[in-house]
Write a structure and sequence with these properties.
By secondary structure, the chain is of the alpha/beta class. Helix content is 57%, strand content 8%. The protein has a ten-stranded mixed sheet with strand order 3-2-1-4-5-10-9-6-7-8, with helices on both faces. Strand 2, helix 21 and strand 3 form a beta-alpha-beta unit.
Length: 752
């Protein structure tokens, strides 16, 4: 007797309190020992022979058994609510992935209703003649076949039973279980068929290959879905799901391994197996018990699917994946009547459109997908080793991953086109769910999976020396408040766009450094960046001195081999700050951090030309030119400077140098596919900065190399150099570039 569940370990209120036998084992074994066993197992044996039949049974059962073990581990690690496989996948891999497989899983369960009812109708049509009843139907329905007529009538009757009470439906399954047991006893006590050979006029169908047979057989072992789907109505899901599921799988395996042995003991002609769907009845001692078993098995399987599919739909509605009215429960037991009606409609459409051999492969694909994800979620949970993963039932993570691999490999072997179609449907649903951005009230393993991948990548990266081919600008930008110095973030983002790390470093005065203040400020900055589609980390550091705090970040910020290699910051023209700035420049150079110092670009914020221009001034030395051209190309990939013209400019002493230098530049430009323009200017006065100012007055950006600090150079001398550079380039949109990393940037752009 099912009692009202008050402490069921479920997230759902109301519902039933079924035990292991009635709630899990019975619906599972009745679906396993169902329509395939009675109506298609002889066909399987006739197509591929005994060894391959036993192999198909073993392969299919192994996948289900591994899934059952993974399911057991997952079920004993969480409070399992309604929705079965969907519930477990969504709570492990996330709501989006759970919904992406939950919707196809519901369709598979609903199609399963049609599959089992079609099997019942196929077995009944030779026993009863319903022609006169069909003739009584309205004229529009006169052409309906007897199989579809029986299927529709059966579907209506089972739906009414499911709507009345799941308790009554499961009690009916106990009687059905007895009938199936009696039919198996009759079969095992049987003998050779009365009629030998193929009946006259019967056409022997062509044999099909191994994987098609596997696809038709596999739904026979998917009965565990019927038990999983009842998870929200179990008294103790963590105890009942593993025990009932594993017991049903092993029982089904023993039955399926013995039936073909007995068949071949009495039948030597494979054509008989191919042409007689009810060969088990011919072999049985009491044929009527086989027929009762067929009807009982198909009806119970259909009833199990009719109970499970609405509960999957109800769970999807509860999580707001579907409109909430679909999941509305009725009565004291919270029965999902609206979801049951929708399941009825899907099954009705399938009955009108398909038959057994058409529906079976579709079921196989969706069930294999859900089984694969159940295995994958359990395997990843174990592999990640989160402290929250403490299942009472232990199963090695590698066993679950083997199960997942077997599922997806089998899908490909059955039909690679159907595999990609099933995965495409799942991927499309996942994309839709991501776009909807539903906020879930539960956690999942995605952060743990990412952490595992990051750990692996960082560990491998630690052993990889830096090289020119794989260089990326990991940028640390000191912008302070993003609103006030947005041009720095914009330039840094354009450099790092989608290929490397960008970190926004902000120095916070010590008096403002409190936990709440830091969390609030980080969230404010992060939200501001996200609204502008800038992907960046935010690092806050306490210091009353901005440059001292920046120096500390340059020295200590990073994780293992992932450290900032490029610093972006603004310039200073304040005399009192120049000494500290030049000290910071020297620190960056000593720490092998490339430095990009950007002048405020307010004057061009809203007035860039249709095609911006980036001028690069090269003095002919190799120190910074490689990094300058690299930075220019990075900037042209998108944003403000997308598709900008890059002009490489060079000052020469007199006209006699022009030809040789132009030939050299043109040759390396063509050889290394550099999309830039060349311009050579003759120095007209002793101060080259005046010519630079005049030539680049209308440029969007002006890139110039910065003098590399000499350890022997006096501080005052470098300060004077910086002061002169800033003064002489006033009003230019200047970007000063200092290459300091142990990377030959000239090789990146082909000048090495």
């Amino acid at each position: 007797m099912a009692k009202k569940n008050k402490t069921n370990g479920s997230e759902n209120s109301g519902g039933y309190s079924f035990g292991t036998f009635q709630g899990v084992f019975t619906p599972s074994i009745l679906t396993i020992l169902g329509v395939i066993m009675f109506l298609r197992f002889g066909w399987v044996l006739g197509n591929v022979g005994l060894p391959l039949t036993l192999l198909i049974v073993t392969m299919a059962t192994s996948i289900t058994f591994l899934t059952g073990l993974s399911l057991s581990a997952t079920a004993t690690n969480m409070k399992v609510g309604k929705g079965g496989a969907y519930y477990m996948i969504s709570r492990s891999l996330g709501l989006e992935i759970g919904a992406a497989i939950g919707l196809p899983l519901f369709l598979a369960q609903a199609l399963g209703i049609a599959f089992y009812i079609s099997g019942f109708a196929e077995s009944l049509v030779d026993v009863v003649d319903l022609t006169r009843y069909i003739e009584m139907l309205p004229e529009a329905f006169q052409g309906i076949s007897e199989i579809r007529f029986i299927s529709i009538a059966t579907l209506v009757g089972l739906t009414v039973l499911a709507l009345i009470s799941a308790d009554l439906a499961l009690k009916a399954q106990l009687l059905i279980l007895c009938a199936i047991f009696a039919s198996l006893v009759s079969f095992y006590l049987g003998g050779p068929p009365a009629a030998t050979g193929v009946q006259p006029g019967v056409i022997v169908p062509d044999k099909v290959d191994f994987w098609i047979v596997f696809a038709v057989f596999f739904p026979a072992v998917t009965g565990i879905e019927a038990g999983i789907a009842m998870s929200g109505d179990l008294k103790d899901p963590a105890k009942s799901l593993p025990r009932g599921t594993i017991a049903a799988v092993l029982t089904g395996y023993v039955v399926y391994m013995t039936i073909p042995l007995l068949m071949l003991h009495f039948i030597n002609d494979e054509n008989i197996l191919l042409t007689r769907p009810l060969i088990m009845a011919e072999l049985a001692r009491w044929a009527i018990l086989i027929m009762i078993g067929v009807w009982a098995a198909t009806l119970s399987s259909a009833l199990g699917a009719l109970l499970g599919a609405p509960r999957t739909l109800q769970a999807l509605a509860t999580d707001k994946v579907l409109p909430s009215f679909i999941g509305r429960g009725y009565g004291k037991k919270n029965d999902p009547r609206i979801a049951t009606a929708l399941s009825f409609l899907v099954a009705l459409i399938a009955i009108l459109l398909g038959d057994l051999n058409m529906i079976a492969p579709v079921l196989t694909m969706f069930f294999l997908t859900s089984y694969g994800l159940i295995n994958l979620s359990a395997g990843l949970e174990g592999l990640i080793g989160s402290p929250t993963w403490r299942p009472k039932f232990r199963f090695p993570w590698w066993g679950s991953l083997i199960g997942a691999t077997a599922c997806f490999t089998t899908m490909i072997m059955i039909d690679i086109g159907a595999t990609f179609a099933a995965l495409g449907v799942t991927g499309f649903l996942y994309f839709i769910m991501k776009r909807r951005n539903i906020r879930s009230h539960f956690g999942d393993t995605r952060a743990g999976i990412l952490m595992l991948l990051v750990r692996y990548a960082v560990e491998r990266l630690r052993h990889q020396p830096p090289d020119t081919r794989n260089w990326r600008p990991n940028v640390l930008v000191f912008s302070g408040s993003p609103q006030t110095r947005w041009h720095l973030i914009e330039l840094a983002h354009a450099m790092a766009r989608g290929t490397s790390y960008l970190t926004l470093g902000t120095i916070v005065p010590n008096e403002n450094w409190t936990a709440d203040r830091v969390l609030s400020l980080r969230k404010t900055i992060t939200d501001y960046l996200q609204k502008r589609d800038v992907q960046a980390l935010v690092k806050l550091y306490p210091s009353n001195d901005i440059l001292a705090g920046a120096e500390s970040l340059v020295k200590g910020y990073g994780f293992g081999p992932i450290e900032p290699n490029t610093i972006v910051m603004g310039e200073t023209r304040q005399p009192q700050n120049i000494a500290a700035y030049t000290h910071f420049i020297k620190l960056c150079y000593t720490m092998k951090r490339n430095l990009i110092m950007v002048r405020t670009l307010d004057k061009v914020d809203d007035s860039l030309p249709t095609q911006p221009r980036i001028d690069i001034w090269w003095r002919g030395k190799q120190a910074n030119i490689g990094l300058m051209i690299t930075v220019a190309y990075l900037l042209t990939r998108g944003g403000r400077w997308a598709n900008a013209r890059i002009v490489l400019k060079r000052l020469i002493q007199d006209e006699s140098e022009r030809k040789d230098i132009m030939n050299y530049l043109q040759e390396f430009k063509n050889e290394h596919r550099l999309d830039l323009e060349l311009e050579i200017l003759i120095k007209e006065n002793p101060n080259p900065l005046e010519m630079i100012h005049r030539s680049s007055a209308d440029a969007s950006l002006v890139l110039m190399g910065m003098k590399q600090p000499d350890p022997e150079e006096e501080e005052a001398a470098y300060q004077q150099y910086y002061r002169q550079m800033i003064t002489d380039t006033a009003d230019l949109p200047l970007v000063l570039v200092l290459s300091a990393e142990n990377i030959n940037f000239s090789e990146i752009i082909g000048m090495g």
